[in-house]
Amino acid sequence: MDAASITELFHPVGSVRLKRMFGGHGIYADALFFALESRGEIFLKTDAETQPAFAAAASLPFSFERAGKTMVTSYWRLPDVAFDDPDELVRWCRLAVAAARRASRGKRAPASPQKPVRPLRASRSSSPRRAKPR
C-alpha cells in the first residue's frame, strides 16, 4: 500500500503523518504512533484495555521473525468492517490513539548520558600570584 492510499484510507480520521519504517509505514496522529502499514495491511496500536475488542473482531497481531523467533507486537490488524465503513474506521482508530496515548504516558524520556565528573584541579593561572619585588 503506498503513502497516498494510506492517507486516503485515514481521511475520515483526520490528518495523519507517515514515516517509512519496517519496510512499510508508521502512521502518526499528531505525535502519536498509533498504526503501521506492512505488506499492504494496516495494524492499530492495542493495549490490555483494547486488545479484547480486536480479538473479538477476529483481528490478529502483527508479528515478525527475528533471530529465529516469532516476535508478536501490540499492533493488531484493522478489522475488515473498518475498510468499508468510515464510522467504524474512526471508532477503531480512536481505540488505537487512546492505547498509544496510554503507552506514551508510561514512557520516560531517555536520560542524556552523563559525562563522568572529574575532580577540580587548581590550574597554574588560578594559583595565588606572588607580588614581584620592586
| Percent of residues in β-strands | 25-35%
Q: Give me the number of helical elements.
A: 4
Query: Would you give the CATH topology?
Result: Yope Regulator, Chain: A
Structural Rg: 26 Å
Uncertain ranges: none
Indicate how many domains the architecture comprises.
1
Q: Give the overall pLDDT as a whole number.
A: 85
Q: Give the end-to-end Cα distance, rounded to a whole number of Å.
A: 87 Å
Q: What structural class do you assign from the helix and strand content?
A: alpha+beta
Helicity range: 25-40%
Largest sheet: 6 strands, antiparallel
Q: What is the global morphology?
A: globular
Assigned CATH class? Alpha Beta
Lateral arrangement of strands in the main beta sheet: 1-2-3-4-6-5
Q: Specify the CATH architecture.
A: 2-Layer Sandwich
Order of helices and strands: HEEEEHEEHH
Structure, described:
- A hairpin with a 2-residue loop joins strand 1 and strand 2 (24-29).
- This protein has 134 residues and is of the alpha+beta class.
- The chain has a single domain (3-106), classed as Yope Regulator, Chain: A.
- A 6-stranded antiparallel sheet has the order 1-2-3-4-6-5.
- The model has no long low-confidence stretch (mean pLDDT 85).
- The chain is built from 4 helices and 6 strands.
